[in-house]
Design goal:
There is one protein chain. The chain is mostly beta strands. The chain has a domain at 1-61. It is built from 3 helices and 32 strands. The protein has helices at 36-41, 48-58, 60-67, and strands at 96-99, 104-110, 113-118, 123-126, 133-135, 150-152, 155-159, 164-169, 175-180, 186-195, 198-205, 214-221, 226-232, 239-243, 248-253, 258-263, 269-274, 291-294, 297-301, 305-309, 315-319, 327-334, 344-350, 356-361, 367-372, 381-386, 389-394, 399-404, 410-415, 425-429, 434-438, 441-445. The strands form 8 sheets. Strands 1-32-31-30 form a 4-stranded antiparallel sheet, with no helix packed on it. Strand 23 and strand 24 (356-361) form a beta hairpin. The chain is globular, with a radius of gyration of 20 Å.
Length: 447
């Protein structure tokens, strides 16, 4: 099984053709990663480098709108003295830390366990109080760049590179069950989004005639442990979010900045929504995190932050960032932290003049607070929340910021000056701690 070295982005040289810009990590089949642009153009299975080059040559107009955000200045690191409206505060020390055998890819909390998937796909479990290993890995997921870990109750869902949708018991790390989407040719990009007992997945089925494959959205019933339905020829997406009250599931195509909502009942298209300024914005740095849901409202990070009626797609409100040329990147819902215990919508934005962290009232879109980060804040910045605190892990600067959800005040910061920007940073939180995984490090902090 050919895989790259831990912590090195070159390890994505083998993997799913659905990896964004050719990013995906190797699996048993040794598939070569092909960029999304190559897929759109019908480029055959060539090397990652060749696919990207061909995509750039053939899509000059699209590439032009993406180029601006790719090389902002290097972040010099957070300050220790806080100025008004800036992400800076006292330094924090971890409650515990663990040196990992391999670099981390993603972290989640489930069933009293910190679940970590390393960049080889091994699913590991740690005690949230001490960091001690709870069990040794017996299951291996396929690892696709930026794909999240989906947790429902005590189960962690993922996939392998043979087209299996997999359910892992978070209490002991064993495989509870799995189902295969196709006997061959199924490549799963992500497992994300839930509605009742249903969990969703996107990916691709190879064209048996030898042409490029087609995108698929699968719906899996976790009670019957089988596929309920699938929709073919969907847009490429790492973001899948469902609103059970509204009866729809939405996918986000981050290349064209378009949302498509499908009926949970009959899978018909209910509505589509495009960003109002799609030609001016670049590819999201965190495409899997560009949509969130609360009740019957979707929150979409694009040229603006859109609050959309989940049933109709109508715009309820939009939020803007203060800096010219800003692009919203990732968004989360923080329950009960808004005015009168309403929900709070927290989102990151990037711009040529610096990144920002925003909080909006979920029902009205009224700006609650905004904090300014460094030049690259918001680009590859992972968000989570717990115990009334928003946590932002900034990959390019190697930092974590803990921000009071109600006030926007920075409680503490953590910075690792020794870490390369090439590493993936992932965060997860419960009511007692936040867990930060990057490189060969797993850390826990108190809120």
């Amino acid at each position: 099984m050919a895989r790259g070295r831990e912590g090195d982005e070159s390890e994505s040289g083998t993997g799913s053709v659905l990896g964004l810009a050719g990013i995906g990590e190797g699996g048993k089949g040794g598939r070569s990663a092909i960029s999304r642009r190559a897929l759109l153009l019908g480029v055959p299975a060539v090397s990652v480098t060749a696919a990207v080059v061909l995509g750039v040559v053939a899509e000059q107009s699209e590439n032009a709108r993406h180029r601006r955000a790719l090389n902002p200045p290097v972040n010099p690191g957070p300050a220790t003295a806080r100025a008004a409206g800036t992400l800076a505060g006292p330094s924090a020390k971890p409650a515990w830390s663990v040196v990992l055998e391999r670099s981390a890819h993603a972290v989640a909390v489930a069933s009293g366990t910190v679940v970590l998937v390393d960049n080889y796909g091994a699913v590991r479990g740690f005690d949230p109080k001490t960091g001690a290993a709870k069990w040794q890995p017996s299951v291996e997921f396929f690892v696709n760049d930026d794909s999240p870990l989906t947790v429902v109750g005590s189960t962690v869902y993922g996939s392998d590179d043979d087209g299996h949708f997999m359910a892992v018991d978070a209490s002991n790390g064993t495989l509870s069950w799995q189902t295969q989407f196709a006997s061959s040719g199924a490549q799963i990009a992500t497992v994300a989004g839930t509605a009742g007992p249903n969990v969703f997945s996107t990916g691709e089925i190879d064209d048996q005639s030898g042409g490029n494959g087609h995108g698929v959205l699968w719906c899996v019933d976790t009670t019957t442990r089988g596929t309920v339905w699938n929709i073919n020829n969907v847009d490429y997406s790492l973001a899948v979010v469902a609103s059970e009250p509204a009866g729809v599931v939405v996918t986000a195509d981050e290349i064209t900045y378009k949302l498509t909502a499908y009926s949970l009942k009959d899978q018909s298209v209910q509505w589509r929504k495009e960003a109002g300024n799609a030609e001016a914005v670049g590819i999201p740095a965190s495409p899997a995190a560009c949509v969130a849901v609360s009740g019957k409202t979707f929150y979409w990070a694009a040229d603006k932050l859109y609050a959309l009626d989940a049933a109709s797609g109508d715009v309820r409100w939009t939020g803007s960032a203060p800096n010219p040329g800003s692009e919203f990147q990732s968004v989360i819902v923080v329950p009960g932290q808004g005015s009168g215990s309403a929900d709070l919508i927290v989102a990151t934005a990037t711009s040529p003049s610096g990144g920002t962290l925003h909080a909006f009232a979920a029902d009205t879109g009224a700006l609650q607070w905004v904090e300014h980060g460094g030049p690259k804040f918001g680009s590859k910045t992972a968000l989570t929340a717990g115990a009334g605190v928003v946590f932002a892990a900034e990959r390019d600067n190697g930092s974590v910021f803990a921000v009071d959800a109600k006030t926007g005040q920075t409680r503490w910061t953590y910075h690792d000056p020794t870490i390369s920007a090439d590493l993936t940073w992932s965060v997860a939180a419960d009511d007692a701690r936040v867990y930060v995984a990057y490189g060969e490090h797993l850390l826990a902090f108190e809120p």
